[in-house]
Amino acid sequence: MKKKLDVIRFVLKCILIPAAAVFVIAWINKPYKKIDEQKYVDVARFGLVGTSFCEIHIGNLGSSHGAYDFDYQEIMDKKGLICFNFANPSQSFDYDYAILQEKGQYMETNSVLLIPVSYFSFNNEVVNAAEAEAMSLRYYHFLSPENIPNYDPYIDLIANRLPVLSAGEDILKLFPNINPALIAHASNDGIDMEEFTRRAQERYSRHFDNKEEYFLPERIEELYDIIAYCYGHDITPVLITTPFSEYYMNLISEDFLREFNETVTAIASETGTSYYDYSCDSRFRGSLQYFSDSDHLNEEGAAYFTSIIWKEIDEFRRF
Amino acid sequence: MLFNSVQFAIFLPIVFILYYLVPHRYRWIFLLIASYAFYMNLHPGYGLLLLFTTILTYTLAIRLETAPSSSRRKLCLLGGVLPLVMILLLYKTCNPLIARLNEMIAAGKLSLQPLTLSLILPAGVSFYFFQSMGYLIDVYRGKSKAEHHFGYYALFVSFFPQLLAGPIGRADSLLPQYKKERPFVYDNVTYGLKLMVWGYFKKLVIADVFAGTVNDVYNNAQSYVGLAFIVATLMFAVEIYCDFSGYSDIAIGCARLFGIDLMTNFKSPYFSFSIREFWSRWHISLSTWFRDYVYIPLGGNRVAKWRHCLNLLITFLVSGFWHGSSLTFILWGGIHGLLQVIETLLFPKKRKGVEIKRRKHWWQLPITFLLLCFTWIFFRANSMEDAVWILSRLFWDIERPLNYLQTGITCLGITPIAAIGMGLSVLVLAIYDLASLKGDVIAGFSKQKFFIRWPVYVLFLVIIALFAPKGVATEFIYLRF
What we know:
heterodimer; A: 5-stranded parallel sheet; two-stranded antiparallel ribbon; 7 strands; B: mainly alpha; 3 domains; globular
């Protein structure tokens, strides 16, 4: 009899204590979810695809080079075209493809899709599994599970449904009276030339160090998939390499550049896709005023670059 | 599977429920299957090595017991111990040797193609090898009887809570427990669960959080100087303690769920007044293993003083080598051995056969802790070059104290609130460990009224859920040894 009672007591305890803990977490999660949404404000724009952005004329995929180097405002204002930037920092081709599968239906027939190809595109920009996982979190906020590469319900739970579980010290934002300085890291105080060079080296290391093979077959395959999707849905794909500063370009070896060009050109010619290479464009290479760092354009640079491609890319002639 | 994986969170409740549903006489079979499933989940091939170790030591122990002559007995012992030692040596030395050879090839000292072979040390192998070897030696010494029931013995070697990182069990304590009927005992099971929660708190909320900063500094040692190393080393001292003792608590608690008592592995080690005392409180199952199977066979302390000192040194050098064949681990072991030698010479336990009672002074605590931290530098450094770099730059720029403090603190990137959080968690740990010196904290707390206990249980679960780093599951440090 005592044994039975003990078992019942144990089962009750095993249910009630975790249930109470889950209740507390759910209770804290509710207000935190609103705070957490601010972290993913940059991907909130994807929610507009299909509503405000329905028949997209020009779009682009890509990583940070795609995210920061295109500014369609002038084209949208003056030409009345609908343009959308599908790029996100460190976004690899598999995520580009995932986005295309989910949002590609909102590209208009005969629209143009710019596909940036950067030096790390055929490998990974992220340097380790932790960063890859952190980077993948944002997709849980705007892609459906079936389209998210390597979808993990655990990540969905901690990053999307119960974000308080991955809040860490951000949980203190629930208490607005806490001095923000307590949870702030040191900020950047602008960059000088020396810093520019150092960061170029950092970016180069990020893109090239500790990588055994720069051209992974699966990445090449994913690019083919993206291009095939475009042709299958009457979208015109355009391969493009965005401008880099001389600080960055000086670090890239001739051998790598040759192999990169051969790879991209081969894919372009095999699929009948145009490829535009602005990596060494003299209008940008030495003009640091257009760069926010060694390989990213700033707002002024992005506007200038978009105005240039608008004039120079043949596929835009139809608009 | 790892204790901090989602798979284990599913595996354990299922095994626990089924275990108490299975009749007693079949429980060993069930636990054995569960243990192999647990281990083979990491890699299916690992099961073969586990089975090989079990069959080898099981067979030789029986042979040893019935061997007609002492030379035959010795042969059986060596036949079991040597292959395991050789396999362990192979795993521990192969990769560093290949790396060294490749360095020489790269430097043009050898005209060979770089070697691409790499041996991955199967998780837990050092622990169950030691447990099996200990059993064989105990049978040889007549301390234990050879186990004739293969199933019970196989379970002794493979019992999943202790399989990957101990505590290294002894046959005379564990085998009888597997045979005994173990009914569901409420207090035992709830104690196990509470110990597991405490272990998870230490691993997930303290060790894993501290690991971020420690790894940043130690994996990029050349980018840091000064105070950053001191802070990172202090943090590593906390990290490794919480990581490993957290693992042990989870293992011991988990075994308790099945009615098995495993050996205590840590007893508030940072509250030690000497290095000697530290080793009686740190990784007890391994240090007693080395004591019983290395130190005492060498002669222990019942020999001339110089020989006693040499025995200490050898034992700790072997212990260092057990952790890894790199120079840093061997030096770590060597320094511990040397510190023990110094303590033995300066503060002998006995004089003329009479035990000397020494008063403990409070200042011995920080000195012991700082000496331990000094040795942790070698333990954690990725290479000897890094260790030398760190040691040579610990006090870099200290002549400008403000600058020293500011650079050290800002370059670590720890926010004030994170520092407060870390401080609080260490405070909880210190209070628990201090209270443990007086008695069993969990047993004591279990006697409190439910309205005191339950909120604390809920609070711990919530803290673990909220503050454990999410995402990429981190390994327990001792799984690599």
